Amino acid sequence: MLFLNANWPPGEQLRAVLAHQWKHAADFGRRYERHDFQDDHTHIQGVTEYDWLNEGLAHLIEVQSTGSMSNLADRVKPFLARPESAPLITAA
Fold it and tell me: Is residue 90 over pLDDT 70?
């Protein structure tokens, strides 16, 4: 079940957010079905799915399903303004 703001108007951004959140829900369903949870809920069949990968795949699905990069562009803009605030290397 997805909960969204009912005040959002129908259109491109709403479709993008629905596709993005659907991807997260589908991934959660796979983990739940396999009962492969660990404390951080990021393991699928023993393979770690890092947060950056999970988000990147959700953005890929939204772009592929809508042809729009509007939601992704809103995320990239702050990163480009301060890339040092989001390192790609994380501690294991």
Answer: no
- Condensed to tens digits (0 to 9), the pLDDT of residues 10-56 reads 888 888 888 989 998 888 777 666 665 555 555 555 555 667 778 88
d(CA 74, CA 6): 21
pTM recorded for the entire structure: 0.65
Amino acid (1-letter code) at residue 67 = G
Residue 9 has phi, psi (to 5 degrees) of -75, 150
DSSP track, 26-86: HHHHHHHHHT---TTS-EETTEE--HHHHHHHHHHHHHHHHS--HHHHHHHHHHHH-GGGS
Cα gap 50→88, rounded to integer Å: 11
